Amino acid sequence: MAEETIFSKIIRKEIPTTLLYQDELVTAFRDINPRAKTHILIIPNKLIPTVNDVEADDELTMGRMFTVAKKLAKEEGIDENGYRLIVNCKAHGGQEVYHIHMHLVGGAPLGPMLMN
Ligand code: 5GP
């Protein structure tokens, strides 16, 4: 059984956060330490620690993360100019919180993808 992270408390609204969206599958909120003008996290309500733990049964939820990203990008006014979606996986990917999350970042040119 995977260990809960702070994100489970955010899903259950047990700690304050800027909640932007929630449905039966996913939750979205602003990153506490934004690295871009818009920096939103989109997470599954189900605790899936990393991409390595995604199962076929999770495909609907994974797809919902993308449709919610699209909706929020439009609401933030960054859909026309574009944005970046990032999912970090484990140590080499730079993952800090072991509850899968999609970063939605944008609001200005982000520059090239970093390889190091
Ligand atoms: P990772 O490095 O795991 O891909 O990203 C984790 C992200 O979660 C970081 O950008 C970090 O700022 C954000 N984060 C960590 N704890 C909290 C929290 O309690 N609330 C919010 N809103 N974001 C958090």
Care to describe what's here?
The chain is an alpha+beta fold. Helices cover 24% and strands 22% of the residues. A hairpin with a 3-residue loop joins strand 1 and strand 2 (26-30). The radius of gyration is 14 Å and the shape is globular. The protein starts with 5 loop residues before the first helix and ends in a 10-residue tail after the last strand. Residues 6, 17, 29-33, 41, 88, 94-97 line the site of guanosine-5'-monophosphate.
Question: What's the SSE blueprint?
Answer:
Blueprint: H1 6-11, E1 19-22, E2 26-30, E3 38-44, H2 59-76, E4 83-86, H3 90-93, E5 102-106
Antiparallel strand pairs: 1-2, 2-3, 3-5, 4-5
The chain binds guanosine-5'-monophosphate.
Guanosine-5'-monophosphate (5GP) binds at residues 6, 17, 29-33, 41, 88, 94-97.
Structural class: alpha+beta
End-to-end distance: 32 Å
From the spread of the alpha carbons, the general shape counts as globular
Number of domains: 1
Major β-sheet strand ordering? 1-2-3-5-4
Name the CATH class. Alpha Beta
How many strands appear in the DSSP assignment? Answer: 5
Mean pLDDT: 96
Identify the notable features of this structure and list them briefly.
binds guanosine-5'-monophosphate; alpha+beta; HIT family, subunit A; five-stranded antiparallel beta sheet; 116 residues
